[in-house]
Design brief:
The complex is a heterotrimer. Chain A has 14 helices and 16 strands. In chain A, helix 12 packs across helix 13. In chain A, 58% of the residues are buried. Chain A is α/β, with parallel strands linked by helices. In chain B, helix 1 crosses helix 9 and helix 1 packs antiparallel against helix 10. The model of chain B has no long low-confidence stretch (mean pLDDT 88). Chain C is mainly alpha-helical. Chain C is globular. The model of chain C has no long low-confidence stretch (mean pLDDT 87). The chains are: A alpha/beta, B mainly alpha, C mainly alpha. Chains A and C meet through helix 1, strand 2, helix 3, helix 4 and helix 6 of A and helix 1, helix 2, helix 11 and helix 13 of C.
């Protein structure tokens, strides 16, 4: 019999189809004496400068919860997946975690794009989702809880302080994507309230490394302060080139984004010292909870492990808020957990005391103003407790209107 | 007046950066037809060499001098284990080097973590009217010119260069004359990698060095090399000059977003009008 | 007929697979369709295009815009196909009638994709909206409607997840059949001639330009359709579809599977996607390294792609006993 290529291909196709079916066949059934929980973050790819500390914090948080008895007396079983900085993989893996692993809660997403790829999946298969990272605010979804710090919380405190400390003329440099645009709009709002003026605002694409033209324009405009909302590894070049041109001593820089990707480690002290930032969490915070936490973190991950970022603390907050809610609700059932999460939970976080606002599903943070110091870390200048997420609270009330699943953008 | 001066300097600087970073790929692609998608990672390795040197107490300059040697060595290793088997198969090398790029980024991340302590820009600055310019930018321009000169010298005045050019034109003839083309390819690839190492190293004190450092450059230098055409030095310089000029001018006049888009659109127009690239109507060579 | 066998196997799959596997396989098949579009223009047309990601993305965004504004997903799917085809027509005319060489054609398609990436990334402001659909910048377009069967007078029946699987599988098979028919047709034969030697074909009197344009528009349309299906599957689309990695990924799928066989594109897309998916779930740190090394290994060991290598191996296995039984 003469077999030609076409016949071989057909046979191959059929064989493969059936083999695939057999190999993939059947879901996984297992007797659950533990509680599966899912984490979806970027361990590889460009976003991993934010992702790696968050992954460590996830592991640490779950271990911590388990060591104090888990939830409802059962231990948590963590399923961690690397989304490889790929939004399409976020959608796929979120489906896997919710549908196949049947996790009791999904935590993850770093960029807003990744969160928006996960939300449809969460809304489709209905499970609680925690987004634990700084972002532009506005998400209003019954199933979603955003524990990260938002522009109103950072800029609302930073800008009045900077206007008083340095002067009223601001120059905004923002990363050219949603977070940058929305934050830049908030800068205008708070600047106006503080009686300041915006000399210019520029949006820089995320892959720009040559800031020569930008720096020349800043020099020409002579602002009192540069307000930086630059993001990512490539934008670190701005601070470097700014210092190289000798401007560092002349024009102060304040930022709501510097430090999240450990920029103060990449830059040398002579380039970054004195830069002012604002976050809920810094490794150097002087309260008892944090001192103990940092000690335990170093013990777990090694004495020379990387600087602990605000994102790491946000992740820690998220897991503990959820665990507290489950224990309060006495059940893993979704509606009960959401009700518990909306009951005004508080938590003694390493950043200070935080509260999960029932209506907006966002967190009331304690924010700290800090300056980059000589040893690639931060020195705390000022503390502001109980700063509410007004940007989201203004538009989102999930207690009154629970049937929402969207992200609002502020209208100015 | 001072604004004009610093803008002009900035434009020259922008062009020099592009040419310096693209030169290694131009050599590899122009001489051997290999599309090395891991070129960005060679840049990254050069930058990391500088970081490691300074972390161990060496000076920035020592690091920059060391980088071409280190990355050249890596280039030899890559050529011997992967590229060597794929000559003539342009797209297969593209696929293999893409895999290599992923692996290199992964390995560096595992070894050094996603962020590493970096170094400040050396050499200070000078005032030009109301503006100031970093001396180091002048250094970058000097290195770019030096690399061009070095490449020209290597390929036109040395025996290796002569043999390399001959191999590019007719490999079997060269083999018949007693030279092993395989070793010529290895040497050329090593040189191209070394150039990349130098370029990345020089950029290290100006940017934030992270494992994904190379990804910001690969598309740009790839397009520059293709637009440049088959004559390496003339093509790369002209393409780098033209595209760099367009990007810089538009960036200075408006914002970097339009600068990037303008450069890309201009590249398309050039490719449409000059079917063989800018130097295509010249001869094939260096 | 073995086709019937394949159809039956596909029909039976969702019954034996878990829900997640069905959902995942659906998006894998969408990517197979995208890979198929590249193999059509590249494997058979001999024209390397880095722009399939551009058509995929344009299709996805077009589906989003049409879907959000009209609420009719099937209409949106048609719009996505048409929009991508229009872009392909424009680009094809610009390049083929301008007699751009093959390498530069590839770079031009890549550059167009990168331009789209840049431009779509700057649309974060709410004023960048088409009708009710906000483009959304880097966050992308959200609240895109799922594929649903909209019959007049009845509420829309959302096709999720098993019906969606069947729709995508059906479309994949239909388009595969269409491509095979095209390749075997007289048009396909001229296309093969163009691939082998364009100059000679021209001298035989065939106008290569419009033929290349037609096949390019077709491949663009298929890529656009896959983009629309993707947007309907995930209910989102963002500029990452226009990135350099996505463009290269389509080429990688076809290369891994083996180009010029159509089945190779499907196999390649499946293999690479399964690998990426498996590695991501298996570890959080080693994904890049593992995937990179596997790709390098595949290129070195299987020079013509997996499908030709498998066929070769199978053919050798079948040929051996036959040779042994022949009289000396």
């Amino acid at each position: 019999m003469d077999m030609n290529r076409r016949d071989v291909l057909k046979a191959l196709g059929l064989a493969m189809g059936t083999t695939a079916g057999v190999a993939l066949g059947g879901g996984r059934a297992s007797a659950q004496t533990d509680v599966p929980v899912g984490s979806l973050l970027d361990g590889t790819g460009p976003i991993n400068i934010y992702g790696r500390p968050m992954i460590d914090s996830t592991t640490f948080a779950v271990e911590d919860i388990n060591s104090s008895g888990g939830v409802l007396g059962k231990k948590l079983r963590l399923v961690q997946i690397d989304a490889q900085s790929d939004n399409q993989l976020y959608a796929q893996f979120a489906t896997k975690l919710l549908v196949e692993d049947k996790v009791a809660v999904l935590m993850g997403g770093i960029t807003s794009a990744s969160r928006e790829a996960v939300r449809p999946v969460v809304d489709k298969y209905k499970q609680v989702y925690f987004y634990n990272e700084q972002y532009e605010g506005g998400v209003c979804d019954k199933l979603v809880f955003c524990t990260g710090v938002t522009p109103a919380q950072q800029l609302g405190t930073l800008i009045p302080w900077a206007a008083k400390e340095y002067g009223k003329k601001f120059y905004t440099l923002a990363a050219d994507y949603n977070y940058g645009h929305i934050s830049a709009d908030w800068v205008k709002v708070f600047l106006q309230k503080a009686g300041g003026t915006l000399v210019n605002q520029e949006f820089i694409p995320l892959d720009v490394v040559n800031f020569d033209s930008v720096i020349k324009r800043i020099e020409g405009a002579k602002p009192d302060v540069v307000m930086s909302l630059l993001v990512g590894g490539n934008h670190i070049a701005f601070y470097r080139q700014f210092a190289a041109t000798g401007l560092k001593g002349k024009i102060p820089i304040v930022s709501a984004t510097f430090g999240l990707g450990n920029e103060q480690v990449v830059l040398s002290p002579e380039e970054a010292e004195g830069l002012v930032v604002i976050y809920p969490y810094f490794q150097e915070l002087d309260n008892a909870t944090n001192k103990e936490w940092v000690q335990r973190w170093r013990k777990r991950f090694g004495n020379d492990s990387a600087y602990i970022t605000d994102s790491a603390c946000t992740v820690w907050n998220g897991w503990h808020l959820w665990a507290a809610a489950v224990n309060k609700a006495g059940s893993l059932e979704r509606e009960a957990v959401i009700k518990a999460l909306e009951s005004g939970l508080t938590f003694k976080s390493p950043e200070g005391e935080i509260k999960l606002d029932p209506a907006s599903h966002h967190v009331v943070h304690t924010v700290h103003l800090a300056k980059v110091n000589k040893s690639r870390g931060f020195s705390i200048i000022k503390t502001y407790p109980n700063v509410p997420p007004t940007d989201t609270m203004q538009v989102c009330d999930l207690v009154k209107n629970p049937n929402q699943a969207t992200q609002y953008t502020p209208k100015f | 007046m001072d604004l004009l001066a610093v803008t002009a300097f900035g434009i020259v600087y922008g062009i020099a950066t592009l040419v310096l970073l693209a030169l290694g790929l131009a050599v590899i692609f122009g001489m051997m037809g290999v599309i090395n998608l891991a070129q960005g990672e060679f840049l990254m390795l050069g930058a990391y060499t500088v970081l490691l040197t300074t972390a161990h107490g060496g000076s920035v300059w020592a690091g920059i001098a060391l980088a071409p040697l280190v990355v050249g060595f890596v280039g030899v290793a890559v050529e011997r284990t992967v590229i060597r088997f794929l000559y003539g198969r342009t797209l297969d090398t593209m696929l293999a080097t893409w895999g290599l790029s992923l692996a290199l980024i992964g390995i560096v991340t595992l070894g050094f973590g996603p962020t590493t302590e970096g170094i400040a820009t050396p050499l200070g600055h000078v005032a030009v009217g109301r503006y100031s310019v970093a001396h180091y930018q002048g250094f970058v321009i000097a290195v770019a010119l030096g690399s061009l000169g070095l490449t020209w010298g290597l390929f036109n005045w040395t025996r290796f260069g002569l043999v390399a050019r001959a191999t590019m034109q007719n490999a079997s003839m060269v083999a018949g004359l007693g030279v092993n083309p395989s070793r010529v390819y290895m040497g050329t690839f090593a040189f191209g990698s070394a150039l990349a190492g130098l370029g990345g190293a020089v950029m290290a004190p100006l940017t934030g060095v992270v494992p994904t450092f190379g990804l910001a450059f690969i598309a740009k230098i790839f397009i520059t090399v293709i637009v440049g055409g088959p004559v390496i030095l003339l093509g790369t310089t002209t393409a780098g000059g033209v595209l760099g000029l367009v990007e810089s001018l538009v960036s200075y006049a408006s914002t970097p977003i339009y600068g990037q888009v303008a450069m890309l659109v201009f590249a398309i127009v050039l490719l449409r009008l000059l079917p063989q690239g800018i130097s295509g109507f010249w001869r094939r060579g260096v | 007929m073995l086709w019937a066998g394949v159809v039956l196997a596909l029909a039976a799959l969702p019954l034996s697979l878990s829900l997640f596997q069905v959902v995942r396989l659906t998006v894998f098949m969408v990517f197979c369709l995208l890979a198929l579009s590249l193999d059509l223009i590249w494997g058979f047309g001999g024209i390397l295009s880095f722009g399939q990601a551009a058509f995929f993305g344009v299709g996805g965004y077009a589906y989003g815009v049409a879907g959000i504004n009209t609420g009719l997903s099937l209409v949106a799917l048609v719009v996505s196909t048409a929009a991508a085809a229009a872009l392909a027509a424009l680009l094809g005319y610009f390049t083929f009638y301008g007699r751009v060489s093959a390498m530069y054609f590839a770079v031009i398609t890549l550059t167009v994709t990168l331009i789209l990436h840049q431009v779509m990334g700057t649309t974060a402001d709410p004023r960048y909206a088409i009708g009710a659909a906000r483009l959304g910048g880097y966050n992308g377009m959200t609240n895109i409607p799922s594929l649903a069967l909209e019959l007049p007078g009845r509420p829309a029946a959302v096709l999720e997840p098993v019906p969606l699987f069947y729709v995508v599988a059906g479309l994949l098979l239909a388009i595969l059949a269409l491509c095979r028919a095209l390749v075997a047709s007289p048009f396909g034969r001229v296309l093969a001639a163009i691939r082998e030697d364009e100059g000679r074909t021209e001298m035989l009197g065939y106008d290569v330009r419009w033929r290349k344009l037609v096949v390019f528009v077709l491949s663009g349309a298929i890529a656009g359709l896959s983009g629309g299906l993707f947007a309907g599957w995930g209910n989102f689309i963002n500029p990452q579809v226009f990135s350099l990695s996505q463009s290269a990924l389509v080429v990688i799928w076809v290369m891994v599977g083996g180009r010029g066989t159509l089945y190779g594109a499907i196999v390649g897309a499946l293999v690479v996607q399964f690998l990426t998916s498996y590695l991501g779930a298996a570890s959080v740190s080693y994904t890049s390294v593992a995937l990179g090394l596997i790709l390098v290994t595949i290129v070195l060991l299987f020079p013509r792609g997996l499908v030709p290598a498998l066929i070769g191996a199978l053919a050798r296995l079948i040929a051996r006993p036959r040779a042994a039984s022949e009289p000396a």
